[in-house]
# Entry
Amino acid sequence: MEKKGVEILREPRFNKSTAFSTEEKEQYGLRGLLPYAVTSQELQKQRVLANIRIKDTDLQRYIFLSQLQDRNERLFYSTIMDNIPELMPIIYTPTVGEACQKFSHIFRIAKGFYVTPDDKGHVADILDNWPEKDVRVIVVTDGSRILGLGDLGSNGMGIPIGKLSLYTAGAGIDPKYCMPVMLDLGTDNETLRTDPVYLGYPHPRLKGQAYDEMIDEFVQAVQIKFPQALIQFEDFVTDNAYKLLERYKDQVLCFNDDIQGTASIAAAGFFTAIHATNKKLGDQKIMFYGAGSASTGIADLIIKAYIESGLSEEASRKKIWLVDSKGLIVQGREDLTDIKAKFAQDHAPASFLEAVKSVQPTVLIGAAGNGRSFTKEVIEAMASFNERPVIFALSNPTSKAECTAEEAYTWSNGKAIFASGSPFNPVVLNGKTHVPGQGNNVYIFPGIGLATLATEPKYLPDSVFLVAAKIVAGEIQDSDLEQGTIYPKLSLLRDISLKIAIAIAEHIYELGLARITRPDNLETHIRSLMYDPSY
# Structure
């Protein structure tokens, strides 16, 4: 550690604050700059938690933790890792949604990297300004569809920052390897553009060729400057999300979390729910409310699971039904995009409720960002023809959830197997406690990041997301199922991420996609890569 004195206290990676020993105070020129007492990291964490718990709102807690990250990185991550169930909803969904909406107003210190149209032709050059030269995980958004909140422009930077903190907390990716990126290519949110406090590029969004050229320049610049980096595309509008994934997924190391990560965690819950209902995979019929990137991504992955189980692709597709804002997606509709058209069924046009009653799905998945769209009539219909209807209300943040846990359990008279994207409290109904599962992508993407750090693959095949889904589903205990919980406890996240990383690394080596030699002991090697924030 070359820095001394106040420089150390201002460097979040090295700062230990009141945990510097008497000897360290002497060695690093800190005498007089800190109080007399030397406190342990454990005592510091207790103090952090006490300060968090006396805050009045989650946004205040978010700001407090963000400021802690800015001044003492190891204390921040150690606190998060030890208290993931309590603090993850603060540093990510649902609180991050409000934080993004108010990002320009609560801005303190720049934590990420911004690219604007003014940087065209110079993206590779300005990447040199990033302080770390060995970046391994990049989360990038253009802010065009933040959670279920829509176009938030450069305010969407809260998403990459939050996601990368979960890569570290959930799988031990060293924060020095992480880079949050905002492709600030304008916004069509007029309210933001006219807000004098707004920090983004205050012009309408780039579109067409100009947009494509900026994205491509960024991706190619990453290949030059950070050739081992995994690029996670996050919160792009559906058309662009698919376009970018198809363009780059077999060329560079990348994935789209809204499409593939969401698909993986939904598939994990789907596998667990099937086990809970004592039915076979081939007996399941799934209806999606929403036909965007999340729904179609889940549908594509579950079709792969159907095929793997022995069904033909044609038979598999007949089990997948999608509903958009105009009703059931059926053959003959002239307004369907290519992505939607491949899911069109031979059925008469129908509203959502009509489709539920007619198709009689066993599983209902909401990913449209349309809050409270799973009405009492919809849930009652699902319960009328299913002994255990599976209800997934996956939209984030909480205000966008298709229904609450209490509504799902109450309207189904306790029959529903429920999961949501944002957390809900347990529900007591008829003397029984139901514990809703949270289908959060955090079970998936940290382990994938750790696997890529260990193997440096050329690209990520779709099959890795099915591997991850099976690992998560395999972590469910019978005691969890008895309470209706279909996802593992968040307190187990680090162990689950390690298991996912090992399984995916094995898979990458089997496929011959790794760019580094397989170590003698893969698990030992991966464990050695995991960041330890203690001091």
